[in-house]
Design a protein that fits this description.
Oligomer: single chain
Radius of gyration: 22 Å
CATH topology of the largest domain: Aminopeptidase
Number of strands: 16
CATH architecture of the largest domain: 3-Layer(aba) Sandwich
CATH class of the largest domain: Alpha Beta
Distance between the termini: 56 Å
Shape: elongated
Largest sheet: 6 strands, mixed
Order of helices and strands: EEEEEEEEEEHEHEHEEHEEHH
Length: 297
């Protein structure tokens, strides 16, 4: 009697922060549990072949960019074999577990040890711009810059702390903080990086997209700006407005510092994006991945 063909119905990824040993996971959903072959061909690419199976989804590549897993892909191969390809930023062997049921789930877990080790002794100063009676820009409907940048900061703070970094906040409530005090916090604690969140606002609602500014006095600061700009653009997929010097950041002296403007709040579409909680997660992961690349260098 021929073996029953298994159908692969879904493929997705997640980070699990529930344990001390944080992991990145790839989850394969199917109509039943299956046999497989796994090959760590170059330690940063995992080939997971599912036997006697057919994919109920079109061949595709899914961008993950969670710091450890770069992307995953699925493809129907010959002889009823489905290939799942996992591309890693660091050489980590996976652990495989199974959850029977409907759907059945096969879970490949990759320890985020390299990333925890990378961030463990890092001090990151996060600066949500404006605050108190300094509202910053306003959207065409109702959003206010000081509020949306505070949400961005909190998302990035959580992500950094989950990966063992020490985070300093220039403000923890809706309060006025002089610019000089924000810079002084980063300098006094010898921060490894200063990240200030703002959004663009102007008279033209046509302006949109991502821009970064950097401290020209700090060594390799343009490289930090490039890393964050590239990774953030990859996550949020907005128009690019470029990287330029900000002379105010010179008060940081040798502390690497950037101002991140992910979007324009005065743009109707981008104010709409700022109402979506998932968009803030993308911003946080984009900046986090940029910091990871910078510290890895």
């Amino acid at each position: 009697m021929p073996q029953k063909i298994c159908r692969i119905t879904n493929l997705w990824s997640q980070c699990n922060w529930q344990t001390n040993e944080t992991v990145s996971r790839v989850i394969i959903e199917s109509t039943q549990l299956f046999s497989y072959q796994i090959d760590y061909c170059n330690q940063k690419k995992v080939i997971f072949n599912i036997l006697s199976a057919r994919a109920s989804m079109a061949p595709q590549t899914i961008e993950v960019s969670d710091g450890l897993i770069d992307k995953i892909a699925i493809q129907q191969l010959v002889h009823d074999v489905v290939g799942v390809y996992i591309y890693l930023n660091y050489p980590i062997p996976g652990k495989i577990s199974f959850q029977p049921g409907v759907p059945a789930r096969t879970i490949l877990s990759f320890d985020r040890f390299f990333i925890r080790h990378l961030f463990q002794n890092k001090i990151i100063a996060l600066d949500p711009g404006h605050g108190g009676n300094d509202y910053g820009g306003r959207g065409p409907v109702s959003l206010i810059e000081k509020d949306v940048v505070f949400t961005m900061t909190k998302k990035l703070k959580d992500l950094l702390e989950q990966n063992k970094a020490r985070v300093l906040l220039t403000r923890e409530t809706d309060q006025n903080v002089p610019l000089a005090h924000r810079f002084l916090l980063a300098k006094n604690f010898a921060a490894n990086a200063f990240i200030s969140f703002h959004v663009y606002h102007g008279t033209s609602p046509k302006v949109s997209g991502l821009a970064l500014k950097y401290n020209p006095r700090a060594e390799n600061n343009f490289f930090l700006a490039q890393c964050v700009y590239t990774e953030l653009a990859r996550k949020i997929k907005r128009p690019l407005r470029g990287i330029k010097v900000d002379q105010q950041l010179c008060y940081l002296e040798n502390t690497p510092g950037i101002i991140v403007e992910p979007v324009a709040i005065s743009n109707w579409t981008e104010e709409g994006l700022l109402r979506n909680p998932t968009f803030y997660e993308k911003i946080a992961f984009g900046v986090f991945n940029g910091l990871r690349k910078f510290f890895s260098s």
